[in-house]
């Protein structure tokens, strides 16, 4: 039980830290380095796609929402895992929650490996690793 508890706490902390690491990307914009990047950034922030039903959004606005969603996913998962641990939820329920976490963060990890860069790949991989270790420790105790 002690190993599973330690790994679950570590997993929750890593998920929360991952969300906090991603948080600055919602507020900090890097300046363009050349004319091509300047043109790209201008288009990202000014060209509005017609999304139907009266919605007109820029790619920058859509990216902001996706970025916020990633941050909120990590925060939600970490806080739920921490809360359930603190409430001493039975192991079977925690197994189910960890399995759901593993499924979602596993899919996210694959997508991140294909479409992102090293920091999100590393952080998401660390989350999946600790979720897997937590789930493995739970199996050994039952």
List keywords for this structure.
142 residues, mainly alpha, two-stranded antiparallel ribbon, 5 helices
Please provide a written account of the structure.
The protein has 142 residues and is mostly helical. It has one domain (2-38, 68-141). The protein is built from five helices and two strands; from the N terminus they run ααββααα. The chain has helices at residues 2-22, 35-46, 59-86, 91-115, 118-141, and strands at 48-52, 55-58. It has a two-stranded antiparallel sheet. The model has no long low-confidence stretch (mean pLDDT 92).
Mean pLDDT: 92
Number of H- or I-type helical stretches: 5
Structural Rg: 19 Å
Uncertain residue ranges: none
Name the structural class: mainly alpha
N-to-C order of helices and strands: HHEEHHH
Work out the count of structural domains. Answer: 1
Q: Main sheet, how many strands, which sense, barrel?
A: 2 strands, antiparallel
As a percent range, the share of helical residues equals over 70%
Instruction: State the end-to-end CA separation.
Output: 10 Å
- Tally the beta strands: 2
Shape call = elongated
Strand content: 5-15%
List strands and helices in order, with pairings.
Blueprint: H1 2-22, H2 35-46, E1 48-52, E2 55-58, H3 59-86, H4 91-115, H5 118-141
Antiparallel strand pairs: 1-2
Helix pairs in contact: 1-3, 1-5, 3-4, 4-5
């Amino acid at each position: 039980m002690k190993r599973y508890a330690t790994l679950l706490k570590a997993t929750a902390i890593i998920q929360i830290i991952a969300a906090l690491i991603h948080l600055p990307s919602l507020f900090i914009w890097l300046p363009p380095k050349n004319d091509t990047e300047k043109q790209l950034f201008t288009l990202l922030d000014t060209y509005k796609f017609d999304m139907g039903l009266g919605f007109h959004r820029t790619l920058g606005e859509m990216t902001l929402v996706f970025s916020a969603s990633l941050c909120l996913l990590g925060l939600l998962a970490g806080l739920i895992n921490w809360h359930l641990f603190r409430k001493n939820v039975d192991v079977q329920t925690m197994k189910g929650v960890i399995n759901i976490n593993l499924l979602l963060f596993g899919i996210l990890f694959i997508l991140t490996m294909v479409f992102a860069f090293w920091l999100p790949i590393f952080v998401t991989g660390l989350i999946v690793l600790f979720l897997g270790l937590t789930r493995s420790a739970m199996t050994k105790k039952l």
